[in-house]
Amino acid sequence: MATTDTTPQGNGSDRPGWRLRARLRALYHGGSKTAVRFRLAVLVVDLLIIAFFIAAPLLRDQPLAFYVIDYLIAALLAADLAARALCYSDIKDWLRRPIVWVDIFILATLLFPAWLFNLGFLRVLRLWTLINSDFFWRTIGRRYDDTEVEGVTKALTALVTFVFVATGFVYTAFLGKTEGLSGWIDALYFTVTSLTTTGYGDVLLPGPWGRIVSIVIMLAGVTLFVRLGQALLRPHKVKFPCERCGLQVHDPDAVHCKACGNILCIPDEGR
């Protein structure tokens, strides 16, 4: 995966806040045991936050507790985003990353729940941004980074994220407007039956827009299932860039690059 240049430019030890930035870089990008434990703790908190996002529609019956947790999570995400920004030498380059903008949007839905209530289901995208981040794979170890495990995990995450985003959209847009759709579980049931093309017919979204949503869920579901199947069944490859042509992946026992014939020396970590 691409790495980020966090090397300080020149002698910046006299700048205000340099020690804080150096400490954050060591925690977010370092390889020490303390840094790994810190990143694992951040991942655990992230997963708990994602669990709250998934369960949020079921918790709105207690508005006071819901908003307290909502703003607490907003404070945590804001602190995490600020810390990640400080880890980068070039903030503009950091802001060009799509994952960052997804996290900023999620933060906005937390800070302004009254105005962005109908878009709250998009918070589940945090699961996709987390699993697709270098931060996640660098933390759990190079044993899984750039391996078949990473490909399968990302494909499965894309499928799960889509299920919950689609469920949230159906729940927000069609609750009370169609027979059989009276709660979040019903919306999840409709999403899964449409995504798997089972289509029992007991829950149908009304009107042309309802049919369009159903079609999108079915097509996206088939695509994501195919992607997951490919990740599970395709032959195992290793990431080893060819020095001559730049081909990124090869068979584990490859001696020559299949694109240009260059001799390869792929390390075998199992030996």
What are the defining features of this structure?
3 domains, Helix Hairpins, two-stranded antiparallel sheet, 271 residues, mainly alpha, potassium transport, disordered N terminus, Four Helix Bundle (Hemerythrin (Met), subunit A), flat, single chain, K_chnl_volt-dep_EAG/ELK/ERG
Summarize the structure.
By secondary structure, the chain is mainly α. The model is unreliable at 1-14 (pLDDT under 50).
Description:
This protein is mainly alpha-helical. The protein folds into three domains: 16-143, Four Helix Bundle (Hemerythrin (Met), subunit A) (Up-down Bundle), CATH 1.20.120; 147-234, Helix Hairpins, CATH 1.10.287.70; 237-271. Helix content is 60%, strand content 1%. It has helices at residues 18-29, 33-59, 63-86, 91-95, 98-111, 125-131, 134-140, 148-174, 184-195, 207-233, and strands at residues 238-239, 249-250. Strands 1-2 form a two-stranded antiparallel sheet. The protein starts with 17 loop residues before the first helix and ends in a 21-residue tail after the last strand. The relative contact order is 0.07. The model is unreliable at 1-14 (pLDDT under 50).
